[in-house]
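LAB NOTEBOOK - FOLDING QUEUE
OPERATOR: T.R.
BATCH SIZE: 2
PURPOSE: Compare the predicted structure-token outputs for two unrelated chains run back to back under identical settings.
PRIORITY: normal
REVIEWER: second-year student, initials M.K.

ITEM 1
FIELD SEQUENCE / FIELD STRUCTURE:
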Amino acid sequence: MDKNRRKIKRNIRGIVFVVLVMMVLIFLRYGWIQLVEGKTMAERVRLQTGEERVLQSPRGAIIDRNGRELAVSSMTQSLFVDPSNVKDADGLAAKLAPLIQVSEEDIKADIRQGGGFVWVKRRLEPEETKAVKQLIKTENYGDCLGFRDEAKRYYPNDALAANVLGFIGTDDKGLDGIEQAYDGLIKGESTESFVMTDGRARPILDSIFSKRRYEGDRCKTVELTLDSTVQFIVEKELDKAMAENGPKAITAIVMNPKTGEVLAMASRPTYNPNRFA
């Protein structure tokens, strides 16, 4: 009996020792993961369960003294490709090219750049966006094609006051006129947001719990002293003078003599800022 009792005690002590060693090892491993590799592991989980999305706000408007819009922005979508997930570059290019008016060779050149992100076409028209989304759905291209929100600038009156307004470049940067002078004031804002996604990078419950697109207006509006009606009359007179006299250039300025406010300012030759290139 004594021998059996001692054997049982040894076995119990052995089991307790093994359990204690295992608990110490688990505790040390837990501490190592939390304290040493905690940030790395957390970032890995974050990247596996979602991705950073950039929310873009529109550029501020430019209006005349009566509140008439001279330059406005609306949110559009730009198309990008993930070359690392493209399985058939020729097939993708052939199907995508006619939808966005980009040559197959240009699309294949974008894919050949490699990596995980390459722009295909910036600021698509609504009908182009709709057609590409249908292609993605039909051909299951969700793992290699995607969209990002960007603001697109429109000048409702085309060439009216073009030399005053100026124009913007591809990255929403003012390159001339009021657009350049007040670029820091009216430039749109980009805000990063983390979105939970599934295996195909599609947002999970996104429409319920988060906002993917910019809503509201955080931008500032620039109000000019110009009067669109006076500006239109002056520019018509300049066009008439150009046709009748054929000068190399003309400039006209109309001011309020009591306040010094500029009511109209125009030059010829001019251009259409919607197609400044």
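ITEM 2
FIELD SEQUENCE / FIELD STRUCTURE:
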Amino acid sequence: MLFTVSQGIQPASGEASTDSQFLEILTEDEMDGYGQKLDNFPALKRILSETGQYCRAELLPDCTLGTLVVPDRQNAFQSSFSAVFYIAPRLLLLIVPDGSRQPLLDSLSAAEFQESGSIFQLFFRFLCAQIRGDMLLLQNYEKRLSTMEEAVAETFPREWEKNINLCRRELLKLHAFYQQLMDMCEILSDNDNGLFPDEYSRHFSRLSARIDRLYDQTQMLREYALQIRELYQSQMDLKQNDTMRMLTVVTTIFLPLSLLTGWYGMNFDFMPELRSPAAYWILIAVCLALVLLEIWYFKKKGWL
């Protein structure tokens, strides 16, 4: 589908002037017969084979091309959008998977894109849109991590460790996305092939700085998640140590009693206490005295 870009995005007609700028959106299947019309088609074909892997950009003498892979904000392990872009002096070509063209057209109908005066401005605004709202997204991650930290201090939810691991993996995915997008914007800001107007070198530099802040925020949240996990592990270790200490104390208390009962359970005929009328009560008193003495000693040492 071919559109002209001049103070908006309009379907192309046969009346387009020779200096018109065009936006074309194709699916991967449609590229088989179309690609031969483009300069640097071998490079574009190579880029197409890497679609859906990572963000990148390449500057060639008369065009700029690359891939854009945006993770889904609801599920970072899936991509919400992936495309190959090809930018020439008068053409912005977006190649998307089958079924993604209509959602892309719907998103480009927003007012901010309709006000674009050139394909370069349209492409820049399109990149900016991919990180819009991400600072709020990272703040929500921070709130989730804070809630998990409070849960560690109070109790040990059954799904806690699963949730913290999932949160760390999602942050790692976003971290990689911001790093790739930042590298791509730095390449575009260099503008070594002179394709973009000079003003867009500054625009891409500012966009790279914004992405860099998101990158740093994500790195901080990853470290925060690691600290919470270490706190969780230390709490688990303390709880396990308390349990083992209690079991040790109980075992130690009953050890003398087991010795006494085992001793007087021996089948000898001539044990003095066996025939004493008060022997049973004396043994009970001795056992109680041992237990009380051990409890006093353990409390003095802080073990109870």
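REVIEWER COMMENT (ITEM 2): The beta strands are 2-5, 9-11, 22-27, 56-60, 63-71, 79-88, 91-96.
FOLLOW-UP: none requested
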